[in-house]
Write a sequence for this structure.
């Protein structure tokens, strides 16, 4: 039997073991905060939010595995993609379970709320999608479905991520900083995959592509935030855009996206500098 922290031969894989253990940390931390009263006046509501936030974070991390293993020249990173995806489903399921508890386990009320509130409807749809992906994530299911059918099914992760981001954005209401930043990071992930699907020769220079996509993603993030405040509150677009260029109002989503992706690109540049040119793999067909 293959354990989450071992390979197919039963040998310990340190990277898988570390990531597997780390996946439990947010849940345990939230449980500890709940038990000690550190979640504020509405601890259950805060726990619902925390598990939901981590569900989408782990989902995005699972999507980041393919571009990062290419950009960072770290093929072994693919070994943790499955557990990240399953963790996203587990936290999303906990998110729903805590919501049911918050509704006093009245399932009829839960079903009514999901049916009547759009952001809950799409959140539940994303959960169902994650459930399907988690249920078919095993090696046995991959063999049963066949490689082509399995890949087509798991390409649903992209619309699921989009729907989950919209759900995150709508349920956040006033504070949309993290959802906006997540949307910007999602734009980077999507841009990378679009280039790979198009078999763009540009991906032969992944560090340059990563850096350019970082600037584009940060720009789209700034425009998205400005558009939101203009539509929602009538704030002038230029005021919000100007705020993104200053730290006076704190770290805005566009700047956060730029800093995160700049760090990702910098690590990639360092890794490629260390590698001999003859060892550089081709990336024209590298999307999984």
């Amino acid at each position: 039997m293959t354990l989450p922290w071992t390979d197919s031969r039963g040998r310990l894989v340190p990277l898988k073991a570390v990531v597997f253990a780390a996946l439990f940390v947010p849940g345990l931390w939230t449980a500890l905060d709940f038990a000690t009263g550190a979640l504020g006046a509405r601890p259950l509501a805060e726990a619902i939010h925390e598990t939901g936030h981590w569900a989408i974070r782990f989902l995005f991390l699972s999507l980041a595995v393919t571009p990062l293993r290419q950009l960072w020249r770290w093929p072994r990173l693919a070994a943790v993609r499955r557990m990240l995806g399953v963790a996203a489903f587990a936290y999303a399921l906990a998110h729903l379970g805590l919501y049911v508890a918050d509704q006093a386990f009245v399932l009829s009320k839960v079903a009514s709320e999901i049916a009547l509130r759009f952001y809950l409807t799409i959140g539940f749809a994303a959960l169902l999608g994650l459930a399907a992906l988690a249920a078919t994530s095993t090696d046995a299911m991959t063999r049963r479905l066949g490689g082509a059918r399995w890949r087509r099914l798991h390409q649903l992760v992209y619309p699921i991520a989009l729907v989950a981001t919209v759900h995150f954005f709508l349920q956040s209401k006033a504070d949309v900083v993290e959802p906006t930043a997540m949307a910007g990071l999602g734009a980077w992930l999507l841009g990378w995959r679009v280039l790979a699907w198009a078999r763009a020769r540009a991906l032969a220079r992944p560090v340059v592509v990563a850096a350019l996509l970082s600037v584009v993603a940060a720009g789209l993030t700034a425009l998205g935030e400005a558009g939101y405040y203009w539509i929602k509150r009538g704030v002038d677009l230029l005021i919000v855009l100007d705020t993104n260029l200053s730290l006076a109002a704190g770290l805005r989503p566009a700047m956060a996206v730029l800093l995160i992706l700049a760090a990702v690109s910098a690590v990639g540049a360092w890794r490629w500098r260390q590698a001999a040119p003859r060892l550089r793999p081709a990336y024209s067909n590298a999307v999984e």
